[in-house]
Amino acid sequence: MEKPLISIIVPVYNVEPYLAECIDSLVNQTYPHLEILLVDDGSTDGSGQICDDYAQKDARIKVIHKKNGGNTSARKAGLRVATGAYVQFVDSDDWVEPDMCESLMALAQEHGADVVRCGYWKESGEKSVRQCDAMPKGVYRTEEEQRFLRDNLIFLQDNGEAALFGSLCIQLTTSDLLKRVLMKEPDEVQYAEDRACVFLTILHSRCVCFTEGCFYHYRQHAGSIMHSANRRYYAQINAWYLFLYEEVGIFAEAETLRKQLLAFTDRMILYGLNRKIVANCPVVVPVFYFRMDQIPVGSRIVLYGAGEVGRSYQQLIRLTACYDIVVWVDQNDQACRACGDLVRPVEDLRCCEFDYIVVAVLNEKTYQTIRTDLCKRFGLAENTIVWLRPVRAERMR
Q: Helix (H, G, I), strand (E, B), or coil: what is residue 289?
């Protein structure tokens, strides 16, 4: 029996340095039944020519040249001509493992899944970090399983963690379902547009499968929209919220979903302020708050962690002057570089005197791992290492 055809749609816009690596990873897939749709979205560099050159060498590749209209517009253009039973999106500056299509299709056929989602590798320079959706792995088919999926779609109810990585690129989706959802999404939704489509495809699916397999390589670089100023940011997230608010209204869990949508919109507003997306300099609005009941005011502390939680804690402590941060450390080299000279390697603990270490991470299991490592490496007493569950700002209202 012949395997179903997968349409791989790649929006392309001014990615000349990365495009060949991306296309090579697609033409070398172990799953042979593919059509590869390269959508040149008005590129002004050599990207369009690279697409045409590859199409000359591989009959599975088709190129669509169009006026620049943004990522959603480019994906729709590819989807209109796609003939596959399933669709896979790939961003043109990323690349995928050779067995991605074969592995995801095997799960789709085994379980009759409309959506199959996998893990990914976050690539920054020479550093690769494995990431997965926080949603528990497995198959969601029965009414009870589907209800759990809808109740936890945006935030997990037990810990408030975002349930899903907001990318369509780690997802194999039936073509019919994707066309029904994506074609309704307004083109002006150009921020978190992936996440909107992810939410809706899962909500409308009869069966969803989450696997721990990591097949996608997500490249982080300075040209990414996540690292660029965007004066239309507020208008875009407003369009995102209004679109999803209407779309989730047909579900029994609409009230819960709408509350979570509002909370997530709050989070995107804070993100835009703190990451300079809407201004030339950041506006200090902590994303997380904390109650340090275990630490006397005026104590000398080490702040451990330079992620989103750590940056919020550092802002709050600096603003309130309730503690003296003698050093701010992180074991992640990228986090240290992102914060400049403010954050030091963990080894700098050996060179300072302090009363407590405040571990600024979201997950308790991560904290326990860090605490064990600190005690073993530095001979610290456990009662000097403090963690309290962070509280998101939108939950303080």
A: strand
Q: Render pLDDT for 23-60 as a digit per residue (tens, 0 to 9).
A: 999 999 999 999 999 999 999 999 999 999 999 999 99
Under 8 Å CB-to-CB from 158, ≥6 apart: which residues?
none
Distance between CA atoms of 168 and 8, rounded to whole angstroms? 12
Q: Residue 304 pairs with which residues in a beta bridge?
A: 329, 359
Q: How confident is the model at residue 279 (pLDDT cuts 50, 70, 90)?
A: very low
**Class for the domain spanning 288-396:** alpha beta
Please write down the HEC assignment for all residues of 354-367: CCEEEECCCCHHHH
Domain with CATH 3.40.50.720 in the chain: 288-396
Q: Write down the pLDDT at residue 5.
A: 97
With a threshold of 0.85, does the pTM exceed it? no
Whether domain 6-220 has CATH 3.90.550.10: the reply is yes
Q: Give me the residues paired with residue 358 across strands.
A: 303, 386
Residues forming CATH 3.90.550.10 domain(s) in the chain: 6-220
C-alpha distance from residue 305 to each of 104, 314, 368 (Å)? 35, 10, 14
Q: What is the DSSP letter of 69?
A: -
Q: Which of 172, 21, 173, 199 is nearest to 101 (CA)?
A: 172
Which distant-in-sequence residues (6+ apart) come within 8 Å of 147 by Cβ? 253
